[in-house]
UniProtKB/TrEMBL annotation:
InterPro entries: TonB_C. Keywords: Membrane, Transmembrane, Transmembrane helix. Residues 180-239 form the TonB C-terminal domain. This is Energy transducer TonB. Gene3D superfamilies: 3.30.1150.10. The chain crosses the membrane at residues 16-34. The lineage of its organism: Bacteria, Pseudomonadati, Bacteroidota, Flavobacteriia, Flavobacteriales. It comes from Winogradskyella pelagia. It holds the Pfam family TonB_C.
């Protein structure tokens, strides 16, 4: 028995294609419906401008200020009355005296101005001075070198006698040899001035200054017959025991 349907009109052949097309259409419709936006008409403001209305602008009326004309210039002054002086009338003349001196005028003599010489404090090193300062007790020494040696020995002996060597232990300094450098000047009158010290502790420096200030007054040193300032320096060395 032959089939009555035409095999070409069989719909089931392309069912998968139809299904895919229909699914794509449904997805497109669903996407559009989800993203569709609506707006409330009340939120839309429609402004209308009537151009037929006449714009009438009221111009304020201002008062016009009338500037008064400038005042007229003052009248010219009347010319001064010129008096006519007769030739016979005497006119006093001003006499200008000369400031130049005459030959007979005595000139006051100026007293002589005395020039006062200001003596400068000249310093001469102890090693090159012509006449060394003389320490008390060194007057009988002959020659400059002998007096230098005598002074150095006397100063060192004086310092060793007066200096408090126990001060280092009292200050808590560690044992060992201590050295203090002292410098001073013997001025033109033989006095001790400008004492300075440098040591391992301020207490030792103060003690060194005190001892040097106790040095006796000396006979000042001289250079070319004039008293001069002589700088002098010496080290103070002592041992701190345990």
């Amino acid at each position: 028995m032959e089939p009555k349907k035409n095999p070409k009109s069989d719909v089931s052949r392309n069912s998968s294609i139809y299904f895919a097309v229909g699914l794509a259409l449904m997805l497109a419709v669903t996407y559009l419906s989800i993203n569709y936006k609506t707006y409330d008409k009340s939120d839309i403001a429609i402004d209308s401008l009537n151009l037929d209305d006449d714009l009438e602008e009221e111009v304020p009326i201002t008062e016009q200020i009338i500037t008064p004309p400038p005042p007229p210039p003052p009248p010219p002054k009347a010319p001064e009355i010129i008096e006519v002086v007769e030739d016979e009338e005497e006119v006093e003349e001003t006499v200008i005296e000369s400031t130049e001196t005459e030959m007979d005028t005595e000139i006051v003599e100026v007293e002589e101005i005395e020039e006062v010489e200001v003596e400068e404090d000249i310093e001469v090193p102890f090693s090159v001075i012509e006449n060394v300062p003389i320490f008390p007790g060194c007057e009988k020494k002959k020659g400059n070198e002998a007096k230098k040696k005598c002074m150095s020995e006397k100063v060192a002996k004086f310092v060793n006698k007066k200096f408090n060597v126990d001060l280092a232990s009292e200050l808590g300094l560690p044992p060992g040899k201590k050295r203090i450098f002292v410098a001073f000047k013997i001025d033109k009158n033989g006095n001790i001035v400008g004492v300075a010290a440098r040591g391992p502790h301020p207490g030792l420096e103060k003690e060194a200054k005190r001892v040097i200030s106790l040095l006796p007054k000396m006979k000042p040193g001289k250079q070319r017959g004039k008293s001069v300032v002589v700088p002098y320096s010496l080290p103070i060395v002592f041992q701190v025991q345990d």
